[in-house]
């Protein structure tokens, strides 16, 4: 099949290009050459988390590779068919587990049988979706499309020590369904999880209380679970919030604790982010808007969604998808942004 060549410095120029390209290469069966990997970053090339995504994708896609090494700015990836079964991967640092999942999940949706994947690394780290967001927002959004997956949190891992552990279980889908999510709907409640690991319990409680106070003006029930653990390498804390609507939508936001940052500030930050997302009236938050486009392109029929904000990640993901699949996205507006595409109706076991 024809080689797809992608300049990794285009658009936002980060790891998202690599993750999306790996998943689409495996699904489509088209070999990939990506160069200038993460060229716009302070530490360009493949770092530990990116290298784990590459090696994980290669294991699942039975791929041949060139350039899969730390610091490499060029990668050749030749998939030979998606496998299924039991897998285990270790980022080796506090690199994000959920970013590795962004690569693997679309592939496993079209695997020939159920799979179970254990990944070690960071569950709640900067510049990546927290594990609670992935579980309670991402997977819930993908469920109506036909994605069947469960994520079990075994142990949390924070920056800089990592040590987190999750287990992803997937069942294959023959085909994904198109969606039409144009309006958020009426708010039913706000839910969330505020956690602290190897810190006093009151840290998680104060995060939750501050978030609740900041969101009181919404006039909806608020239920934030407080989780206290002492089983991680820690210390660390975070809070993830999501608003649920009468149309089945979930809009999420999060904030991470850090040394010298009061727990109250963490809670308020997450609440303010959620309020900003809700103020747009969009059906999806900005991060979900970035991630949904790959699934929209693979689904059968026309999908239309409204996300809260046009981001560089969204534009970059659209560009990458269009290199692999015979689709053309349209999008209009900035805050919010409407995204539409006629999906290819990819079927498990098919080749494009």
TrEMBL record:
Organism superkingdom: Archaea
EC number, UniProt record: 6.5.1.4
Keyword Ligase on entry: yes
UniProt keyword list: Ligase
Top enzyme category: ligase
UniProt-recorded name of the protein: RNA 3'-terminal phosphate cyclase
Organism whose genome encodes this protein: Thermoproteus sp. AZ2
